[in-house]
Description:
The chain is mainly β.
Amino acid sequence: MAKIIGASIPNIPWQDKPEGYKYPVWRYDGNPVITRDNLYNANSIFNSAVVPFKGGFAGVFRVDDVCRDHTLVVGYSDNAINWNLQEKVIFRGYDPRLCEIDGKYYLSWVNLTPHGTTIGIAYTTDFEEWTQLEDACYPVARNGVLFPRKVNDEYMLLIRPCDRGHTPYGDIFLAHSKDLTYWGKYRFVMKPEKNWEMTKVGAGPTPIELEDGWLMFYHGVLTSCNGFTYAMGAAILDKDQPWVVKHRADRFLLAPHKDYELVGDVPNVVFPCAALADADSGKIAIYYGGADTVVALAFTTVDEVVDYIKANDLMNK
Ligand code: BMA
């Protein structure tokens, strides 16, 4: 078995792969797990982040409210499927990611400034009090995703530099920091390669540490005559030089095929922002936004996903 370096999550949400299903990532049959009905005054609740917390789970959820403002709220769950969302807005912005580093929970998100989007970073120990740090990569960037530990004694942040609109820039870079305040030593990681991701790529959940690399799920965007289609891909980054892509699937692992991915405020969107990974069993539960309207859940195992990436490896063709 490929090995996950990380926590045991014995209560990770799970369903076995349906009999006869050929692909490496399968959906929860109770999807969507969160809809606008989970919170009063929500227009839509989607691209959201979850982590294990005190024997259960906590999360930060993207709620676009009935004024269509982008807000972030905290939620709690015992089973990571049924969530209790709080009304209090902790930050404004969107697309949160959560990452535990040395006992603190770090939130990175798309922060909104008068000059464009940037990467907000804040931390908490209890999901009630938050300390906000300097914005990273100001301006202009999105899809800021921290690594769950320092690499070579430096914090690592995946980013996608962009412009103020739906950007023609579409490549993933990596930034280093000694203190989570000053970011630099930028490294190119990857650019779109295949048709399904041809417009842009952006990092998704916190990378999952493996024995010999980092498993990175990401989104890739196709532009068709009908607009954008967002799908999920996967790659394995070098363990000590995570800007080096060692393996990368040439095809998507999850694309908008179900109604709740095809129909919503923005049709044809699968947008992963979080993954729970159980080091003992190799089970992985992926949280993604469906059609910018709901939160959905999908499953894989570390073996399934690593084998699939290597069997369809863009880097070894
Ligand atoms: C991206 C982000 C995501 C969104 C996606 C599709 O640029 O804004 O939050 O899910 O577009 O609309």
